[in-house]
Amino acid sequence: MEGVCIMELKDVLKFETFWMDWMPAEAAIAVARDGDYVYFRSGALNASIRIGQPVERGSIASQVMESGQRVERQVTDFLPGETCFGIGYPITGGAVVVLLSSAYIMKQKEPVAFLTGKTEDTWHPVPVEDILYIESQHKKTWFYTEEGTYSTAYTLKQLRELLPDTFLAVHRSYIVNIRCIREITRDISSGFLLKLKDEALLPVSQNYTADVRKRLGF
């Protein structure tokens, strides 16, 4: 089992102080041995793990114990209604599982500085600050600058995770560069419209209104 480090439980627990030093305070840590959880530190997660709780089949701890290998994946075992990211490590007769919230993982990722857009058979690296807005249309994603329109292989969902916080989802089909908003008005149905510096008008859908108002402070 190349790359796998299997430790005795007593040795794992000796490292508790070490874990506290190098792991994020937000991290939850669980140790399972012989089919039950024998140690748990909740960190900032409201995880539902109890000492003595049996390890459920299919959980990340169960997968580690069955395979004897490190396992990384998103998990929903411990946070009802929420997803977190888990890394499981094998120990003799059990597993150590480290859990981090998806929000924490996303905060640690560096946002992209540019997007590469395509026009016909040419690709153009474009700094994100030059992008006015991004649109999903007919199962394709397009972004717009003052110089032109480009297609990208990313979906809007992926871009919401990759772009810096100067970008804001305002509709299921639109992400806007906040710095390019010239004014906010209402349409005839009292919904909000964003007028950009290139005179483009983007609707704010009802599902996004509360978040837009909170982010833009109005």
Description of the structure:
This protein is α+β, with helices and mostly antiparallel strands and 218 residues long. It has 2 domains: 99 residues, Beta-Lactamase, CATH 3.30.450; 107 residues, OB fold (Dihydrolipoamide Acetyltransferase, E2P) (Beta Barrel), CATH 2.40.50.40. 21% of the residues lie in helices and 38% in strands. It is built from 6 helices and 15 strands. The strands form 4 sheets. A 5-stranded antiparallel beta sheet has the order 2-1-5-4-3. The chain has a 5-stranded antiparallel beta sheet with strand order 10-9-8-12-11. β14 and β15 form a beta hairpin. The protein is elongated. It starts with 8 loop residues before the first helix and ends with a helix. 28% of the residues are buried. InterPro entries: LytR-like, LytTR_DNA-bd_dom. This is HTH LytTR-type domain-containing protein. Pfam families: LytTR. It comes from Planococcus lenghuensis. GO terms for molecular function: DNA binding; phosphorelay response regulator activity.
